[in-house]
Amino acid sequence: MSTMADPGFYTAPKNTPFYHWSDIDPDGTWIFHTIERSVGSFVRPHLMSLEIAERLGKVPAAKSAPARCPAGSGIYELSQYLAAEGAKTLEQEELDPVLPQVLFGSVNSSTREGRTMPQLPPQL
Hints:
There is one protein chain. By secondary structure, this protein is an alpha+beta fold. The protein has a domain at 19-96. Helices cover 23% and strands 6% of the residues. It is built from 3 helices and 4 strands. It has a two-stranded parallel ribbon with strand order 1-2. A two-stranded antiparallel sheet has the order 3-4. The longest helix is centred in the first third of the chain and has 14 residues, at 26-39. The radius of gyration is 15 Å and the shape is globular. The N and C termini lie far apart (31 Å).
């Protein structure tokens, strides 16, 4: 993997998962999508889900537009959710950080190239 700013900065095998954790809000989707475009590979959201937003978030007083992400983006579903009326947001500082659960080889609706997305920790 390399970045646009420094093509030789970092190299990892193609199947190395790349996660990003940001606020569950429009700014978080912009940051996520910017990183996703910069690294040129699929980035997985970590602790950035509709389920977490619905369970722990609050409807903001002022609404702003989330990033416009293509359907193949790792943050597409969250950006669609945040564009809707009544969508809840959450600052990442309100969550206790946990490592992503990385499982290889099983394929389901939340996978890409056979790698599963992180599952929501039981305490959240």
